[in-house]
Specification:
Bound molecules: zinc ion
Distance between the termini: 47 Å
Mean pLDDT: 89
Low-confidence stretches: none
Number of domains: 1
Largest sheet: 2 strands, parallel
Shape: elongated
Structural class: alpha+beta
Oligomer: single chain
Order of helices and strands: EEEEH
Strand order of the largest sheet: 1-4
Length: 57
């Protein structure tokens, strides 16, 4: 199973995340690399804090 970041399309290798076409295209799994995962979590946090502040106002 090869994991590909659905944001930046990096492929997960034993050595880490690299910008490379996955060799095995039949068993691709989409996820987030640590970098994009942090960005997504920030976005979610921003979004939820905005939701909170708008509901308070
Ligand atoms: Zn990524």
């Amino acid at each position: 199973m090869t994991t590909v970041c659905c944001v930046c399309n990096k492929t997960k290798k034993r050595s880490g995340w690299v910008r490379e076409q996955p060799s095995d295209k039949t068993s691709l799994s989409h996820g987030y690399c640590p970098e994009c995962f942090c960005k997504v979590m920030k976005k979610i946090n921003d979004y939820s804090s905005k939701q909170l502040s708008s509901s308070e106002a």
